[in-house]
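Anyone up for a design puzzle?
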């Protein structure tokens, strides 16, 4: 087959265009740090990249949920610690007031403090995190307890949970009745109401009876307190697991999408050398004509 000058020129331009296209791609990769800047760069790789990006986005949401859950539980932990302190003080006062040396006026003075402690427990029962009530199940926009009728206020029994993986949802909320006792029973609020009433009426037997009841509601709060600690530990474990999973996903994504700068720079330099060689060779070929052979 006869190779004409036009064919040589066309082939040279095609080769130069291919080299320039390859160099442009390499320059874009170095500028962005990404192997894939458009789907045509790697149709198979872009599918993997999209899957890893989706998994990382979901993982970020799970991590945020775990952190939120931990923060909520820390707030609840602090609230129950305060409740425990209040009941400890109430027991100390009840023990003192049960002493036969106290008179009616002294017991009324103790009653005033017990009533304040009960109000403090109502406030603890209405603890919030980020504007959401913690001890009213799924009705987080409604305070679970009222000051005047806390002993008989029922709380919502729904459970608020947070997803920390596609298949795992960890419960966060604990209902007020689980922590402080069921409405209409000897819950923590009724115990303190009864104690204050016994103190106001100088009823030593009622004051003494309150000691065992305070111990009972304190034990109930301690059980919930331990449950909160266990859930906090679980969220900590899930955060560590999510972090490990994110490291693996980022490594896999990097292998598909991130540029190896040392290799990319070497490759681009090699292409520059090829381009220079092609231009030099092409210039010599294009200068050759029939007159050159006739000299």
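Challenge accepted. My sequence:
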């Amino acid at each position: 087959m006869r190779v004409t000058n036009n064919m040589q020129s066309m082939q040279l331009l095609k080769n130069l265009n291919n080299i320039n296209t390859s160099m442009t791609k390499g320059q874009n990769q170095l500028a962005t740090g990404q192997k894939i800047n458009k789907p045509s760069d790697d149709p198979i790789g872009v599918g993997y990249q999209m899957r890893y990006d989706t998994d990382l986005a979901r993982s970020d949401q799970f991590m945020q949920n775990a952190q939120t859950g931990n923060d909520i539980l820390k707030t609840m932990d602090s609230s129950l610690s305060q409740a425990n302190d209040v009941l400890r003080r109430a027991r100390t006062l009840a023990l003192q007031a049960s002493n036969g040396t106290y008179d009616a006026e002294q017991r009324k003075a103790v009653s005033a403090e017990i009533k304040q402690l009960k109000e403090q427990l109502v406030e603890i029962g209405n603890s919030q995190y980020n504007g959401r009530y913690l001890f009213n199940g799924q009705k987080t926009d409604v305070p679970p307890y009222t000051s005047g009728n806390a002993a008989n206020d029922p709380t919502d029994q729904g459970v608020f949970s947070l997803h920390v993986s596609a298949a795992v949802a960890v419960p966060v909320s604990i209902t007020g009745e689980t922590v402080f006792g069921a409405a209409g029973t000897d819950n923590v609020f009724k115990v303190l109401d009864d104690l204050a009433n016994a103190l106001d009426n100088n009823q030593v037997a009622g004051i003494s009876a309150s000691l065992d009841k305070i111990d009972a509601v304190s034990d109930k709060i301690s059980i919930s307190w331990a449950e909160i600690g266990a859930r906090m530990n679980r969220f900590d474990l899930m955060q560590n697991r999510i972090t490990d999973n994110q490291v693996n996903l980022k490594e896999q994504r990097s292998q598909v999408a991130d540029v190896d700068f040392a290799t990319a720079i070497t490759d681009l330099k090699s292409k520059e050398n090829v381009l220079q060689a092609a231009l030099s060779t092409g210039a010599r070929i294009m200068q050759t004509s029939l007159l050159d052979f006739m000299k």
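A detail worth pointing out: The first strand starts at residue 128 and ends at 129.
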